[in-house]
Amino acid sequence: MKNKKEIVLTTFDRLMQEPKQKEKFDKEYGKFLLKEFLLEAMNENHISVRKLAEESGVSTSIIQNIRSEKISNITFTTLNSLMNALGYRVLIERIDKAKRKIKEIS
Questions:
Q1: In this structure, is the dihedral angle defined by the CA atoms of residues 91, 96, 101 and 106, taken in order, positive or negative?
Q2: Phi, psi of 43, deg, nearest 5
Q3: CA separation for the pair 3, 1 (Å, rounded)
Q4: Rounded to two decimals, what is the model's pTM?
Q5: pLDDT range class, residue 106, cuts 50, 70, 90
Q6: d(CA 106, CA 104)
Q7: Of the candidates 37, 39, 31, 76, which has an alpha carbon nearest to the alpha carbon of residue 58?
Q8: Looking at the chain, which terminus has fewer C-beta neighbours within 10 angstroms, N or C?
Q9: Which residue has the higher pLDDT, 3 or 96?
């Protein structure tokens, strides 16, 4: 008779099972992703902070704060202006109910 394989969880997987840790990760990961996307898009477009500020109408200090993850809240208008200036479009997509329920329970 074969033994069932024991499932070994990584440290990350164990942390994600704790609702408070998962919530903290989700919040911080969103800021990290925004920063990385902004840096990559600016690099791809060969655009400086100053030029992006001019083209988007967003202040250089807000752009710098996003790049350094100092900003915790960003308005849709600001995000949309930055993405448009970089040649991207912001889309809003509905998540399915199963995923939403998991998030509500956590």
A1: negative
A2: -65, -45
A3: 7
A4: 0.67
A5: low
A6: 6
A7: 76
A8: N
A9: 96
Contact 85, 55 (CB under 8 A): yes
Could you give the domains of the chain? 11-105 (1.10.260.40)
Residue whose token pair is 């509905």 = 94
pLDDT of 103 over the 60 cut:
no
In the block, residue with structure tokens 């399915």: 96
Instruction: Output the DSSP codes for 48-66.
Output: -HHHHHHHH---HHHHHHH
Other C-beta atoms lying within 10 Å of the C-beta of residue 10: 8
Which carries the bigger pLDDT value, residue 37 or residue 30? 37
Rounded-to-integer distance, Cα 36 and Cα 42, Å: 10
Q: Residues 88, 38: contact at Cβ < 8 Å?
A: no
Q: Can you point out the beta strands (E) in the chain?
A: none
pLDDT tens sequence across 61-83:
999 998 888 877 889 999 999 99
